[in-house]
Write a structure and sequence with these properties.
The chain is α/β, with parallel strands linked by helices. It has twelve helices and 19 strands. The chain has helices at residues 18-29, 57-62, 99-113, 156-160, 164-167, 217-220, 226-232, 238-246, 289-310, 315-345, 347-359, 361-371, and strands at 6-8, 11-14, 34-38, 51-53, 72-79, 85-96, 116-119, 122-128, 131-136, 141-144, 146-149, 172-180, 188-194, 197-203, 209-216, 248-249, 255-260, 268-269, 272-274. The strands form three sheets. Strands 4, 5, 6, 12, 13, 14, 15, 16 and 17 form a nine-stranded mixed beta sheet that branches. The longest helix has 31 residues, at 315-345. The structure holds flavin-adenine dinucleotide. Residues 14-20, 37-40, 46-52, 121-122, 150-152, 155-157, 174, 200, 212, 214, 260, 276-278, 281, 284, 287-291, 293 line the site of flavin-adenine dinucleotide (FAD).
């Protein structure tokens, strides 16, 4: 039984991760009435490599966001399962920042601007007569002419919306924890592979080293738990063995998420404009998912603003335009990431690729360019 009290907004955003918070800030800056529905209270940790590409910095500044970090990453260290390694300077570079701090910083900015939040789980979305009605797990109803779906990689709403990828089992699992290891350099991001997966190492604003890896179930399920997996599989890579033997975990236990899907998704579904991972997830080895989430929120916000403020575009045109822009900016990156992941995960092609990359750093630079965007114009 739903309560009859209904509140009307200009835009309702489901999911207050990076995509949702960015869109909320952008649209609120344009004076629209914005509601964010988010399951979890801030701040909280998330499974993520916490490498934030600098391409988003000008746009975050435009939104009035000052990043609480001094960690500047400008070098990639890459190693194979057997520990063959190379270093490469990164053309754009990145910030090392925890999701705990980053999401919370955006949340505070959104609150300061007057974005409204309800902490709940959105359970259903209905679109009728040009209006969305969203119901949550407390029986409340909210209405708006626009809804942004920013509910991440996998949500109850993907099932409700019968999205194709949801029915398919995904073989990927993500694990992350912060560690104390002072000797790890601030400017470095490590990308180290092991049987069935790969992991990233980089510093965050607290000085802690974030170790986050992606692994297949097939590889993981042969072991009892994360400790055993780390010891017997991850530590086969000498770089990771050195890290695990010297670093001390700061979390009580690592965070993990299952069923990470890299399948294609539609950027617009049932008139909902999807942003961030809800529209498509790039392989984490590219270190570009957060930047894409933020950038997609900018594209969606600009189009929705035109519709709400100037009434110059039909809803259909907005949807088509968004889908086209999404493909234009992110389609190629996602496809390159997919191909790269396949090559790296096979020891044979992984080694071949590595040998080629050692011979030609130019090739590796081209790959990095293809999986990243240019600084976002504001
Ligand atoms: C292992 C791994 C490592 C990664 N490393 C990096 C990296 O180093 N650099 C990088 O740029 N990217 C990285 N990524 C990708 C990056 O984490 C994502 O692309 C980014 O978090 C996307 O942001 P988002 O806002 O779309 O989703 P999220 O940040 O996941 O936010 C979605 C939000 O929606 C909420 N939600 C879901 N369902 C509901 C509901 N029904 N009602 C209310 N709220 C709901 C959730 O609670 C969540 O807060 C990595 C990803 C993985 C899996």
């Amino acid at each position: 039984m739903y309560l009859s009290l209904v509140t009307v907004y200009d835009v309702i955003i489901i999911g207050g991760g990076l995509a949702g918070l960015t869109a909320a800030i952008h649209l609120r800056k344009e004076h629209h009435r914005i509601l964010v529905l988010e399951k979890e209270r801030y701040p909280h940790h998330k499974v993520c490599g916490e490498y934030l590409s600098n391409e988003v910095v000008p746009y975050l500044q435009f939104l009035g966001i000052e990043l609480p970090t001094t960690i500047e990453i400008n070098t990639l260290e890459f190693s194979t399962q057997k520990g063959r390694s190379l270093q490469l300077s990164l053309p754009l570079g990145a910030k090392g920042i925890s999701r705990y701090a980053l999401d919370n910083c955006l949340y505070k900015r959104a609150i300061a601007l007057g974005v409204e939040f309800v902490f709940c789980t959105a359970e259903s979305i209905e679109f009728r007569e040009d209006t969305f009605t969203i119901r949550n797990n407390h029986g409340q109803e909210f209405k708006a002419p626009f809804t942004i779906g920013a509910f991440g990689k996998r949500s109850n709403l993907d099932k409700t919306l019968s999205r194709n990828f949801f029915a398919k089992k995904s073989p990927w699992l993500g694990v992350k924890a912060h560690y104390k290891w002072d000797e790890f350099p601030d400017h470095l991001v490590g990308l180290h592979s092991f049987k069935g997966g790969y992991g990233g190492l980089s510093k965050t604003e607290t000085g802690a080293v974030n170790f986050c890896y992606l692994v297949t179930y097939e590889s993981f399920q042969k072991r009892q738990n994360i400790d055993e997996f780390n010891e017997l599989v991850v530590a086969q890579n000498p770089y990771l063995a050195n890290f695990l033997s010297k670093a001390t975990m700061e979390f009580k236990k690592p965070l993990s998420i299952a069923q990470i899907s890299f399948e294609e998704k539609d950027p617009v579904e049932d008139h909902i404009i999807m942003c961030g991972d809800s529209a498509g997830l790039i392989h984490p080895l590219c270190g570009n998912g957060m930047a894409m989430a933020i950038h997609s929120a900018k594209i969606a916000s600009e189009l929705i603003h035109v519709y709400l403020k100037e009434g110059q575009m039909e809803r259909n045109t907005i949807e088509k335009e968004y889908a086209l822009l999404w493909q234009y900016f992110f389609g190629k990156r996602i496809r390159t990431g997919r191909r790269l992941q396949k090559l790296l995960m096979s020891p044979k092609t992984g080694n071949m690729l590595f040998s080629m990359a050692t011979l030609s750093k130019g090739m590796l630079r081209r790959i990095i360019r293809k999986t990243h965007g240019k600084p976002i114009k504001v």
